[in-house]
Design goal:
Radius of gyration: 14 Å
Strand content: over 45%
Largest sheet: 7 strands, mixed
Helix content: under 10%
Number of strands: 11
Shape: globular
Distance between the termini: 40 Å
Amino acid sequence: QVQLVESGGGLVQAGGSLRLSCAASGRTFSGYTMTWFRQAPGKEREFVGSVTWSAALTTYADSVKGRFTISRDNAKNTVYLQMNSLKPEDTAVYYCAARDGSWYRTPRYRSPDEYTYWGQGTQVTVSS
């Protein structure tokens, strides 16, 4: 049984930083894509960024590129989302998701519908 558990959310002022963690368990994730999504009140869930477990390739939404960084720690089976220069518009519930399947040249899997496993979410609030 795959489990994803997010942590690290909270309240931060604009311009500040947070690091979210996603602890993954239940199987080996080689060949998987691990992704962060977010959902603000009244909006659809949107893609933030992904990392491929095996090759650690990353891709990001334009809105966070240059500010957010995704990484993974094989030994800890954990994926991280380092968020810098936070803006009020980054306020949302952040979800970790996983799916079998990876990519190499062209990033794939940006739709929530393409993901099998989800965490419970962690709230990030950025005050102005």
